[in-house]
Amino acid sequence: MKRPTIADIARQAGVSKGAVSYALNGQPGVSESTRQRIIAIAREIGFNPNSAARALSGATANAVGLALRRPARTLGIEPFFMELISGVEAELSARSYALTLQIVADPETEIAVYRRWWGERRIDGVFLCDLRVDDQRVPALEELGLPTVVIGGPGHTGRLASVWSDDAAVLVETVEYLYALGHRRITRIGGLPGLLHTEIRTAALTEVSRRLGLDQTRTVGSDYTGEEGARVTRRLLSSADRPTALVYDNDVMAIAGLSVAQEMGLSVPADLSIVAWDDSPLCRLVHPPLTALSRDIPAYGANAARQLLAAIAGEAIGDFQDETAHLAPRGSTAPPRTP
Amino acid sequence: MKRPTIADIARQAGVSKGAVSYALNGQPGVSESTRQRIIAIAREIGFNPNSAARALSGATANAVGLALRRPARTLGIEPFFMELISGVEAELSARSYALTLQIVADPETEIAVYRRWWGERRIDGVFLCDLRVDDQRVPALEELGLPTVVIGGPGHTGRLASVWSDDAAVLVETVEYLYALGHRRITRIGGLPGLLHTEIRTAALTEVSRRLGLDQTRTVGSDYTGEEGARVTRRLLSSADRPTALVYDNDVMAIAGLSVAQEMGLSVPADLSIVAWDDSPLCRLVHPPLTALSRDIPAYGANAARQLLAAIAGEAIGDFQDETAHLAPRGSTAPPRTP
DNA sequence: AACACCCACTGAACCGGATAAGTGAGGTCA
DNA sequence: TGACCTCACTTATCCGGTTCAGTGGGTGTT
């Protein structure tokens, strides 16, 4: 069960190791007939170049890293990351790049993981997720000189390249849509405070509310979990002048919110309109199906992977704006019964 | 930004490369004082051993692989894999093992990926998921001699080690519980036919139905998606003698089924009881919360990782039986209104 | 004092590729 | 015919660790 090396091929072909290397890598230096013979032998004996040897010879590791800071049990619920990873993967595996994944507990560990990966030459680049305002990981990665693509933005990415989507624009579109339906008391259940995209959305909401004169529109903080989403919703719907429309920062909270509304005897969408950020099959499964801010997450991941591979290849890359999410109206939004 | 090597440490410490290697790996051959001096220097200059060089010197790659065959868009919805990966990760990262992930399209590609990974010495072992009856991947991995832990079973794993959980037992427990509540028309909405655990559950259902004399109990095939779960449920609930209890092979289908029932004006649990296989926060979010077959998936993954690491270390490992899922009764099950 | 023995370390080979430098055969051209 | 060039290779070195076979000095034994 000994795995073949180029030396084995060289022996069989009656040439030197160097010739085999040239032949297999499409380099000049061997005749076409010899090249074909070598390639045939390599295929026949099932040769795969030892990635360690290749990496050691100054080349690349042919792998990129992704570290996620997320407690084990909540990671599962959010479809976002798995969809993102699928998209990233599709792009990477087409170029025989591997994806190395690690779940970390805190930002310090995360930085340590990057440092170790890079020191070990285990990876050629990384994706940075869940960007925060003034994120300490950004300067750390800049200092390491590790090729990085930040997933998120814009802004706060320092000299690192990023792939982002215009959350502010969709939020404005959504609020204008709800406004047009007649809603005047709109509340957004936000994601974790401190995350950059949470702050961007909050700022956009403040801005559009001011413009439309919606003085009862606001954001309440949450943490993306269904439990918290349910709790916040219960509180909001119990207040005297309860909102007529709720915008949730992710689909899990939106579904939890829908359940709470129904449990409290409110009819959706007649008594309450609901919008979910991030569309997933879940949003279509519940009843009524949720109006959602829909976006092609796998494509987003694929773009991020493309950018990272370009950065690794040494190309100067900048920020890449991915498609803006669009509002997919479904059964959970309608004009309010009591304006 | 040159990354330090043992040669740099050797030069600073005034010893040879060999001495540094012995010192850092806890090998005998250096005095305690020299060892401490070398370790101090290594820490100071931020040394990390080049994993490629290490792997090349006959040692291990310090990475394991996981290939998942799943379309990009459905992968996200199933919390199962992300929870599994979290558990695997926790165990791996404690030993500085990396997890390499790849999404594949079909079994042939999957086998090719294993072959390539192993040929490239990129990984030391793999996890095999979604085991099928007479799975072609089993003999392929046996032939490669690649350390493997099958996640699933029992049976059909050839000489490969496995980690499994007793699905048959839980299914029996569930059916007996529904029977005790008074249900006589129970239907299971099964996962993809051909998957080993689907078949195991189907066989167990047949067996327990015969024993209890439930001649109207049966399994209908599905594919784990919410869409299909909804379609099957709609059909089942439209029939003349509709079932009074439905058991779904995963949580996504169960939630879809709950929606369909409510859309059709049926009250859960009065008119229809629902049980979900695989518990996730989603089951607690909906209304009524779903009775579920609950299990610690991260722990399952951690056990699998432990087994794989043992196999890589050359220990003879066999099959490991993980905890059996338990029935967590919630609001979606009750005695039927019309027995 | 002679010898064996251990300790702490050095030097060199090795893993499997990539690659720069060297070599000999054959052809071109003045 | 000799100088020069190109082609198709070979040879040797390198990457950064691990590991095995020395080696010289100190200690213990008789």
Strand content of chain A: 15-25%
Oligomer: homodimer
Describe the largest sheet of chain A. 6 strands, parallel
- The tally of helices of chain A reads 14
The helical percent of chain A reads: 40-55%
The helix-strand sequence of chain A is HHHHEHHEHEHEEHEHEHEHEHEHEE
| Helix-strand category of chain A | alpha/beta
Rg of chain A to the nearest angstrom?
Answer: 25 Å
Average pLDDT of chain A works out at 92
Uncertain ranges of chain A: none
- N-end to C-end Cα span of chain A: 75 Å
Shape of chain A: elongated
State the strand order across the main sheet of chain A: 2-1-3-4-5-11
The greatest interface here is: A-B, 71 and 71 residues
Please report the total strand number of chain A as a whole number.
Answer: 12
Report what the structure shows.
The structure is a homodimer. Chain A has about 350 residues and is an alpha/beta fold. Helices cover about 45% and strands about 15% of the residues of chain A. Chain A has helices at about 5-15, 15-25, 30-45, 50-55, 70-75, 80-95, 105-120, 135-145, 165-180, 195-210, 225-240, 250-265, 280-285, 295-310, and strands at about 65-70, 100-105, 125-130, 150, 160-165, 185-190, 220, 245-250, 275, 290-295, 320, 325-330. Chain A has a 6-stranded parallel β-sheet, sandwiched between helices. In chain A, strands 7-6-8-9-10-12 form a 6-stranded mixed β-sheet, with helices on both faces. In chain A, helix 13 (about 280-285) links the parallel strand 9 (about 275) and strand 10 (about 290-295). In chain A, helix 7 (about 105-120) runs parallel beside helix 8 (about 135-145). Strand 2 of chain A pairs antiparallel with strand 2 (about 100-105) of chain B.
